[in-house]
Amino acid sequence: ALGYISEEFCSKGFKWLKSIIENLLKDKHDKEAIDALTSVRSTPEIRKYIMAKPEPISNLYWQKVGHIFKDDIEDDSDFSIAIVNLLNVNRWDAAIRLSQAGSRRKPEVGKTIDYLRILQHGLVAFDDEVKKVFNGPLGSRSIAGIFGHLDSCKDADIVEMAKLEGFYIHIFQYSEESPKYLIRRLEESPEFFTELICCGYKASSEKDKQLDDKERERITNLASRSYTIFSIWKSYPGHELEENKRDEKIREWCTL
Fold it and tell me: Tens digit of pLDDT for each residue in 211-255?
């Protein structure tokens, strides 16, 4: 039946499909309606239609929708709708794939805030599904691409970008991209440098023995990221300056 719907949709269009969906929803066959709707390629028209439905119906669609192709993205607003709703149902993998499609469009589609949302989701919703994407080849390759795209946009907040680069630092060990904002913060902020040193080389105490497993894992991860950051940072403040100005820059950095 779904194969038939997919074939007929190609010739009869969304108006024909909409009538089928409405009848199914009217008879309380929500799952069957979403199965029919996701049996065809996602289009801006379908996404606008589903967004007008109650949240439970809309969420069902975003949980099941397949790959959204770059040619099917209408504009920045359409891109944003898709990203926000995919992340809302924890479809981080689909959002990452969509970000690849958006950045490959010529001209590129999607605002800086939506690419940032994808990176921030991994930081705040670090559950088992996110870990699976985060540690896989899709996550490493594609997340590096998102950082590269944001760097080319030139309008991302430096502190926020440095924070995100620090969280995803492991991907920069195997990527052509470098944590530019993180390095910039290290070279401009001795306080940030000291903070990372303290995270990476914190002495153990009696209080540490009383921590639960989750908090202990968080501290261990912070230490690991700090160590990785310093292993990637091969320069120092003022390294790009002429020799006579280099020493002055380092002294200035140490006294900030």
Answer: 777 777 777 888 888 888 888 888 888 888 888 888 888 888 888
Instruction: Quickly count: other Cβ atoms within 10 Å of residue 22's Cβ.
Output: 12
Contacts of 148 (CB under 8 A, 6+ apart): 177
CB 118 within 8 A of CB 96: yes
Rounded Cα distance between 68 and 94, Å, is: 8
Give CA–CA dist 86/81, Å, rounded. Answer: 8
Q: Smallest Cα–Cα separation from 212: which of 203, 220, 224? A: 220
Amino acid code (one letter) for 136: G
Residue 213: CA count within 13 A, CB half-sphere:
0
Q: What is the DSSP letter of 65?
A: -
Other CB atoms within 10 Å distance of the CB of residue 169: 19
